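Margin note from the TA: students keep mixing up input and output lines. Inputs are the sequences; the output is the structure of the whole complex. Example:
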Amino acid sequence: MAGSEHLSRREFILGITAAVGAFITAAIGLPALDYLIAPALTGTSSDAWIPLGKLDGFEVGKPILSTFTRSKVNGWEKTVNSYGVFVLRKSQSEVVAFSNVCTHLGCRVNWQADKSQYICPCHDGHFNIDGQVVAGPPPRPLDTYATKVENGILSIHFQES
Amino acid sequence: MFKKLFAWLDEHLGLNDLYKAVLDRPEPKGNWWNTLGSASLFLFVMQAVTGIFLTVYYTPSPDHAYDSIQYIMNVVPYGWLIRGIHHWGATLMVLVVFIHMIRVFVTASYKYPRELTWMVGVGLLIMTLGMGFTGYLLPWDQKAYWATTVGTSIAGTVPWAGPIIEKALRGGPELSALTLSRFFAAHIWMIPALLGGAIGIHLYLIIKHGESQFPEKQD
């Protein structure tokens, strides 16, 4: 009844219907959301030392692009990703390994010997030979890998989470 | 605030008129058998929603179809639920649509002025069966493969045009990747588009003519 402080039958039915509807929506909606975003919630991590070859094979003072591949299972399929590392041997014993992934938006940088810079073709980001940003939009220097030399073989520490 | 917003929307969309015409229309005395059309509509919407969700992971290629479904069933959270609803909902929809048709026949609701509603409804039944037939192949397992081999062979027994129909359905002389991708296209784009349009016409006709009175003894 309108104006009455008691719930009318119509209001009661309306409230029950809304409550049951909300429950069903949540019971179906939350699993559905989980179904959609599941790949974002599960991660595979990878941690390995990757041998790149004899240290003596790298010329001193000149960045050399070295590549390797890693495979992992994404969904029902094995995906093989390739990675590039610029190995810069600064002296006989000192070596730095830069990732060739531009720190701006993830394109791959190229070494341009005439300019002595790594240049990203996507948005014209420039890095000097030590990976520092010289020009363009990159927010930070090129990422580096930890390196080690064992029995004359150069390895880099590959980590991915 | 909400009242103002609603008033503005109502003024531009005619929500109240729409509500009166669609949901608040006078109904003859009926029973639960009259709810099967709404149940069919609900199942159609449910199949559409779960089907869209399945396409997020399903891959219509012979190399990946089976594996992608195994992935949905065993790895993706609630994948078993989404696919389970789609699988059982499909069977239920065929059943409910069929019983709905029987109800309309028994209560003679197909008579003047509702003949066109019946004719469109026959189309809806055929398209529902078409959805079942095309969806059955998508898991690309033994049952799917041989069911489609048999089904398309049956289509091939049509006099004169049979071989062309069979090849058109299969996308070639035998079942292949082409069969799978064209069944997928039919299952998620072509038939649902036609089905959705036909449902719109079916509902318009129901709203236009109202629901039929159950026949009395003297009828």
